[in-house]
Amino acid sequence: QVQLVESGGGLVQPGGSLRLSCAASGFRFSNYGLDWLRQAPGKGLEWVSGITNGGVVPSYADSVKGRFTISKDNAKNTLYLQMNSLKPEDSAVYYCAKSPRAIPWGLRDDYRGQGTQVIVSS
To answer: What is the pLDDT, as a whole number, of residue 61?
Structure first.
């Protein structure tokens, strides 16, 4: 069955960096687009970033553009999110999600991991 396991979250000071990872199994990783989503306390689910199946074409929400970088390693079946210049408003649970297609599918993804918490605070 499809499994998506996120890791790399934690507590970081404003301006700091974190790298999230998502280990995938149970499907042909290179065939599908993937997304990162997040949910802050008391708020709805938000799309953060997505990438195509080949890992060539990334896309970003305006709120993270220029600070976050998504990447996909098809040899390792792993998705990454490098987060730099973190702000308190980036605090949320971050989820890795699988698209049903070769392109990212945002909030309509068909599978989602359990999430990893990111807290940005001094």
So the answer is: 97
| Per-residue model confidence (pLDDT) at position 74 | 97
54, 71 contact by CB (below 8 A): no
Show the tokens assigned to 108: 């309509």
- CA 84 to CA 76: how far, in whole Å? 23
Ranges assigned E (strand) in the chain: 3-7, 10-12, 18-25, 34-39, 45-51, 58-60, 68-73, 78-83, 92-98, 111-112, 116-120
Inter-residue contact 53 to 32 (CB < 8 Å)? yes
> How far, in Å, are 24, 41, 44, 59, 98 from residue 32 at the CA level?
11, 29, 25, 15, 7
Contact 34, 50 (CB under 8 A): yes
Q: Chunked in runs of 10, what are the mean pLDDT values of the chain (122 residues)? A: 97 98 97 98 96 94 98 98 98 97 91 97 96
Q: Under a CB-based contact definition with an 8 Å cutoff, are residues 114 and 6 in contact?
A: yes
